[in-house]
Automatic annotation (TrEMBL), chain B:
It holds the Pfam family Peripla_BP_5. Gene3D superfamilies: 3.40.50.2300. Keywords: Signal. This is Branched-chain amino acid ABC transporter substrate-binding protein. Coiled coil: none annotated. It comes from the Bacteria. InterPro entries: ABC_urea-bd_UrtA, Peripla_BP_I, TAT_signal. Residues 1-39 form the signal peptide. It comes from Bradyrhizobium macuxiense.
C-alpha cells in the first residue's frame, strides 16, 4: 500500500480498529490501540503510532521501536496483532509482551521510510538516554544532538547529572547545548555557553547545527555563531589536508597492491603481461568461492574467510601463472610485441571463461566485521577496510622483498634475470626458475585480488580497471626495482588525491597522466633506474 | 538451429574465400547459396542485439535472456500471424562500432523483422544510421537522456520526465530537500540528465550555490574524496540529497564507501537512476537501507501480472533466485507492442509496423497500461523505491497516474519548443513555434 491511502480504505481500517476494541474491551488499552496502528501499513498511521508508543511510558516501548528500526517488527494484517522478533530469535506479542511460538504465513514486516526512520531515531534517543547499556546511551545522546527536541531537556539534564562515563558525559553536554541553542526562552548567556560547547566539538555536525542558527536569534548569538562557524571551518580546512594525505596513502596502497605482482612479471622478468589484471580477478573470484563454501557449510568462520582465501588465491593464480608461462610465454621471450598480443588475447579468454562459469553479473563478496565501518581520528574518518588494506599491502611488500633477498629461490630469480647464461652455467635450471618467477608474480596478483574484492566489484572486468594503473606505477617507479614501485604507487596516490578536490575526478586523472608523460620524457627509466650491466641485457 | 548452422557454414565459407585472397565479392557470392533468406518463409526472425561479453555484459545478458524467454512464451501461444518466431542472437561485445556492424548483419544477412537491443546511448547512436538506411525497427529498453525521436526507434525505457523529474519532486516534497548533489559518471546520459535537472531545480527556486555537480570516470572505484565532499556539502545546515546517475560497476564501491563513512539515508539520501535489482545482487544492502531508486517497475510490486511474469521467468531460467528489473519490463512491453502491431498490420513489413505501432496499448506489469505515443515513447507510471535489506525495493511513492514520455525536454532552452510526432507531422523534431520540421537533432 502506498502513502496515499484512500479515504474509504482508511474508514474501513478505522471501523475494523473500533470493532476490535469493542470485541476485546478488557484487553485493549490506549497502548494496545497505538501498537495496533502499525498493522495498517500506512506511513502516517505508523508515524502516529511511533509518537504514541514513545510517549506511553510502557516498558516495551523501546523494544518495539528498536525492532521497528531494525526491521524486526511484523504485523498480521488480519488479526491486527504486532510481533517483535527479538535479536535472539524469540518472538513476542508487541502489545502484551507474551511469548509467541510461530508466526503465521501472512505476517509481514512493518514498512518504514526515511521520514519514519528519523522519527524512530529521535524517539529512541529520548527513550534510551537512561539505558543501562553505555553504547545505547552514547547513541541516544548523539541522536538528541541531531534532533535537539526541546522537550527532552529535563531528561538530558538528569542523565547528565547521573552519567559517570567521560565520553558519554561529553556527548550529553553537547546534546544539552544543542537544545539550549534552539530553545526560544533560553537566556543569551546560556546560548553563548552552548555555542562554546558546540564550537569545541568542531566537526561537520557541529557546523551543520551552527549553520542552522537563524537570523531570528539575538544579534549577540548570531555573531557568536558565525565566528564559531569560521573558526570550525578553518580548523576543518586544516584537517582536510590530513584527510587528503590519508586518502592518498590509501589509494597508493591499492595501486601498489595491484602493481606489485606486475613489478615481478613485467619489472623483473620483462614480460609485458596484459593478463596481469585477470590474475587479480581470479584471486577475487577465489575469495568469492571460499566465502560461498563458508556461508553454506561453516557460517561461524565467516570472519576468517579472507585469511583462508589469501593462501588459496595465491595457489590458484600462481598455478595458472605457471601454466601460462610453460605453455605460452616461454616461447615468446625477447619478443615483446608478440608477448603483448598473446597476453592480451589471454586476458580476454580468461575474462570470458570466468563470465561463462560464474555469469556476467557481480558476485557478492562480504566484508568481515573487522573490515566494516570506520573510526574517527581527530576530524577525519578512517575506514577499517582501507586501513587493513594499507597494512596488508605493506606486509605483502615486506614478505616479497625478504623472499627475493634471503631465500634460495629469490637468489636464483635475481641471478637468472640479471644474467641468464651465467646463471645457467652455474647449474641453475633457468626455465624452472622462469616458471616459478612468473607463478610468484601471478600469485601475488591473486592475493591482491582478495584485498581488492573488499573495495571493488567482483566481476569479470575487475582486472581491466587495474591494468593501466599497474603499468603506470611500475613504469613510473622504474622497471625492475621493487622500491621504485613502492615509492611510485604512493607518489601517484597522494598526488591524485590532492589534485582531485581541486580539479575533480576526471581532470585529476588526466592531469596525473600528463605529469607522468612529462616525467618519463625527462627520466625515461623512471624514478629508480637500474644501473649497470643488467640494464643492457 | 538449422539457420544457425547454415549461418556458420556461410561464415566459414566466406572466411576460406577470404583466406584464399579471392576477395570479398567472391566471398559473398560463395555464401549466397546458403543465404538464410530461404528459411525465412516459415518463421519470423527477431534480432537480439545485446552485449554478451565485455563491460556491458553485466547488464545486457539478462535482456538477451528476456527476449528469448518472451519469444518462447509467444511461440507456445502459436507465434505471430501463424508463424513461429525465431531469435537471432549476436554479440556486439560492448564495442560501439561493432554494434553498427552487427545491426547491419542482422538486417541484411539474417533479414530480421525487428531488433531488440542496445543499452548505452552511445551504442544506440552508433546503430541509428544503420536502422535509418536499411529501414528496420529497433526497440530500445533503457532509461535515457531523451532529446531524440527517430522514425525507426521505439523507446520503451524512461525519458527524463518519467524518472529524473518525478524523483526530484519526491525529494522536494516528502524529504524537504533544499541542497542537491548531482553525482554522475562522465558521459552523455548523466551530463544531459543533470543539465535538465539543474534547469528544473533553478526553475523551482533552488539557488546555484545549493547545487553541486560532480563527474567521475567510468568504472571509478576510489570514492573516498567524492564521498567526503558530499559529507562536507551536506553539513551546511540544509537538508541535502544526492541524485546519482552513476553508471554500472562504479555504483558498488560508491555505496560501500557511503556505508563505511557512515552516511545514512536518514541524513543524506541518495536517489539513483541506474541502480536496480540486478545491480544490488552484488552487494550487501544492509548499510544502504533507505537509499532510493526511481524506476517505472520494481520486482517487489505485487500485481497478478508481475507475479506470473516472475514465476515464469524463474522457471524459464531454472534459477529461483533470478531477479527481474526495469529494462526487462520495458522489453516485455516493447515485445508485446510489436506483436500487437504486427497482428494489426497483418505483416512484418517495417513500414507497416512503424505506422501501426503508435496508439497500440498493452498492459504493463504494475497494473497500468502502456501506450505507444506518436513520439515513439510510451506512457509509464513512476515509482520511488527504498532499498531493503534483502536487495529488493519497497515502493514508498508513485505518481498518481501514468506519465507520457517527452522526447524533448521542456526544461532545456534548445528543446522546449520541439515535439516528436510520427503520426500527424511525420517528423521527429517538429518546432511548435515556427511550425517547421527541423531544428536541434535534425
Amino acid at each position: 500500500m502506498l502513502v496515499h491511502c484512500s479515504d474509504r480504505v482508511r474508514a474501513l481500517l478505522l471501523a475494523v480498529l473500533l470493532l476490535t476494541c469493542l470485541v476485546v474491551p478488557a484487553l485493549a488499552g490506549p497502548f494496545e490501540d497505538s501498537v495496533a496502528k502499525f498493522a495498517n501499513d500506512d506511513f502516517s498511521d505508523t508515524e502516529a503510532a511511533i509518537g504514541e508508543v514513545a510517549s506511553s511510558g510502557n516498558p516495551l516501548a523501546s523494544t518495539i521501536l528498536s525492532a521497528l528500526q531494525d526491521g524486526r517488527l511484523s504485523a498480521d494484517p488480519d488479526t491486527k496483532k504486532i510481533f517483535v522478533t527479538r535479536s535472539d530469535g524469540k518472538i513476542i506479542d508487541a502489545a502484551t509482551g507474551a511469548a509467541v511460538d510461530k508466526l503465521s504465513d501472512n505476517v509481514a514486516d512493518v514498512r518504514v521510510n526515511n521520514r519514519l526512520r528519523r522519527a524512530i531515531e529521535a524517539a529512541l534517543g529520548g527513550l534510551t538516554l537512561l539505558s543501562s547499556d553505555p553504547a545505547k546511551r552514547l547513541a541516544a545522546a548523539q541522536s538528541v544532538f541531531k534532533s535537539h527536541e526541546e522537550n527532552l531537556l529535563p531528561t538530558v539534564e538528569s542523565a547528565l547529572a547521573k552519567e559517570t562515563n567521560k565520553s558519554i558525559k561529553q556527548a550529553l553536554a553537547e546534546a544539552r547545548a544543542a537544545i539550549i541553542l534552539f530553545k526560544s526562552d533560553a537566556s543569551d548567556s546560556d546560548k553563548l555557553d552552548a555555542i562554546a560547547v558546540i564550537k569545541a566539538r568542531g566537526d561537520q555536525e557541529a557546523l551543520a547545527l551552527l549553520n542552522d542558527v537563524g537570523t531570528d536569534q539575538p544579534a549577540l548569538v548570531t555573531k557568536a555563531a558565525s565566528s564559531a562557524i569560521s573558526s570550525i571551518q578553518s580548523n576543518l580546512a586544516m584537517w582536510s589536508m590530513v584527510q587528503n594525505a590519508w586518502y592518498g596513502l590509501s589509494l597508493g596502497s591499492v595501486l601498489l597492491l595491484a602493481a606489485i605482482g606486475l613489478a615481478i612479471t613485467f619489472g623483473v622478468m620483462g614480460v609485458i603481461n596484459m593478463a596481469h589484471g585477470e590474475m587479480v580477478m581470479l584471486g577475487a573470484y577465489t575469495t568469492f568461492v571460499v566465502q560461498e563454501m563458508i556461508r553454506t557449510r561453516y557460517p561461524a568462520l565467516f570472519d576468517y574467510s579472507l585469511l583462508i582465501a589469501v593462501p588459496l588465491a595465491f595457489l590458484v593464480a600462481g598455478a595458472i601463472g605457471v601454466v601460462i608461462e610453460r605453455t605460452i610465454i616461454r616461447f615468446l621471450y625477447g619478443r615483446p610485441l608478440e608477448t603483448l598480443l598473446a597476453t592480451w588475447g589471454l586476458s580476454l579468454v580468461l575474462q570470458q571463461a570466468v563470465r561463462t562459469m560464474f555469469g556476467p553479473t557481480n558476485r557478492e563478496v562480504g566484508n568481515p566485521s573487522w573490515m566494516s565501518g570506520a573510526f574517527e581520528l581527530g576530524q577525519i574518518t578512517i575506514t577499517y577496510n582501507r586501513l587493513w588494506i594499507l597494512c596488508f599491502t605493506l606486509a605483502v611488500f615486506a614478505i616479497l622483498l625478504a623472499m627475493l633477498r634471503y631465500t634460495a629461490l629469490g637468489l636464483e630469480m635475481r641471478a637468472v634475470t640479471q644474467n641468464r647464461r651465467m646463471a645457467a652455467s652455474m647449474g641453475i635450471a633457468t626455465s624452472r626458475v622462469d616458471a616459478l618467477t612468473f607463478g610468484l608474480g601471478s600469485g601475488i596478483a591473486g592475493i591482491a585480488g582478495v584485498a581488492l574484492s573488499q573495495i571493488d566489484n567482483v566481476s569479470p572486468n575487475l582486472g581491466q580497471s587495474y591494468i593501466i594503473d599497474s603499468f603506470m606505477v611500475v613504469v613510473f617507479g622504474g622497471v625492475g626495482n621493487l622500491w621504485g614501485t613502492l615509492v611510485g604507487a604512493f607518489t601517484l596516490g597522494i598526488a591524485n588525491k590532492f589534485l582531485e578536490p581541486v580539479a575533480g575526478a576526471v581532470l585529476g586523472k588526466i592531469a596525473i597522466l600528463v605529469l607522468i608523460i612529462l616525467f618519463i620524457q625527462k627520466r625515461p627509466r623512471g624514478l629508480f633506474a637500474l644501473k649497470g650491466r643488467a640494464v643492457e641485457a | 538451429m538449422l539457420t544457425q548452422l547454415t549461418h556458420d557454414i556461410a561464415t566459414m565459407t566466406r572466411r576460406r574465400a577470404l583466406a584464399a585472397t579471392a576477395g570479398l565479392v567472391l566471398g559473398l557470392a560463395a555464401s549466397s547459396p546458403f543465404s538464410p533468406a530461404q528459411a525465412a518463409d516459415d518463421t519470423i526472425k527477431v534480432g537480439v542485439l545485446h552485449s554478451l561479453s565485455g563491460t556491458m555484459a553485466i547488464s545486457e545478458t539478462t535482456l538477451k535472456d528476456t527476449i528469448l524467454f518472451l519469444i518462447d512464451e509467444q511461440n507456445k501461444k502459436g507465434g505471430v500471424l501463424g508463424k513461429k518466431l525465431e531469435a537471432v542472437v549476436v554479440d556486439p561485445a560492448s564495442n560501439w562500432p561493432l554494434f553498427a556492424e552487427k545491426a547491419r548483419e542482422l538486417i541484411t544477412k539474417d533479414k530480421v523483422a525487428v531488433v531488440f537491443g542496445c543499452w548505452t546511448s552511445v551504442s544506440r547512436k552508433s546503430v541509428l544510421p544503420v536502422f535509418k538506411e536499411l529501414n528496420n525497427i529497433l526497440f530500445y529498453p533503457v532509461q535515457y537522456e531523451g532529446e531524440e525521436s527517430e522514425r525507426n526507434v521505439f523507446y520503451t525505457g524512461a525519458a527524463p520526465n518519467q524518472q529524473a523529474i518525478p524523483a526530484v519532486d519526491y525529494l522536494m516534497k516528502e524529504e524537504k530537500v533544499k541542497r542537491w548533489v548531482l553525482e554522475g559518471t562522465d558521459y552523455v546520459y548523466p551530463r544531459t540528465t543533470n543539465k535538465i535537472l539543474e534547469a528544473y531545480l533553478k526553475s523551482k527556486g533552488v539557488a546555484p550555490e545549493d547545487i553541486m555537480i560532480n563527474y567521475t570516470p567510468f568504472g571509478f572505484s576510489d570514492w573516498q574524496t567524492e564521498v567526503s565532499k558530499i559529507k562536507t556539502f551536506g553539513s551546511a545546515g540544509k537538508k541535502t540529497a544526492v541524485v546519482s546517475t552513476i553508471n554500472g560497476d562504479a555504483n558498488v564501491p560508491f555505496y560501500k564507501e557511503l556505508g563505511n563513512q557512515g552516511i545514512k539515508a536518514t541524513d543524506i539520501p541518495v536517489v539513483a537512476f541506474s541502480v536496480g535489482e540486478e545491480e544490488l545482487a552484488g552487494i550487501d544492502t544492509k548499510p544502504l537501507l533507505g537509499h532510493l531508486a526511481a524506476w517505472n517497475y520494481f520486482e517487489s510490486i505485487k500485481t497478478p501480472a508481475n507475479e506470473k511474469f516472475i514465476k515464469e521467468w524463474q522457471a524459464y531460467t531454472k534459477n529461483p533466485k533470478r531477479v527481474t528489473n526495469d529494462p526487462m519490463e520495458a522489453h516485455y512491453i516493447g515485445f508485446n507492442m510489436w506483436v500487437k502491431a504486427v497482428e494489426k498490420a497483418g505483416s512484418t513489413d517495417p513500414d507497416k509496423v512503424i505506422d501501426a505501432l503508435p496508439g497500440i496499448e498493452t498492459p504493463n506489469l504494475t497494473g497500468g497500461v502502456a501506450k505507444m505515443l506518436p513520439n515513439h515513447h510510451i506512457t509509464k507510471p513512476v515509482f520511488i523505491g527504498e532499498i531493503k535489506g534483502n536487495g529488493q525495493f519497497d515502493v514508498v511513492w508513485k505518481t498518481p497516474g501514468l506519465v507520457a514520455g517527452d522526447a524533448w525536454s521542456k526544461e532545456l532552452e534548445g528543446s522546449k519548443d520541439l515535439i516528436g510526432d510520427w503520426v500527424g507531422k511525420k517528423c521527429g523534431n517538429w518546432n511548435t513555434k515556427t511550425n517547421k520540421c527541423g531544428g536541434q537533432g535534425s
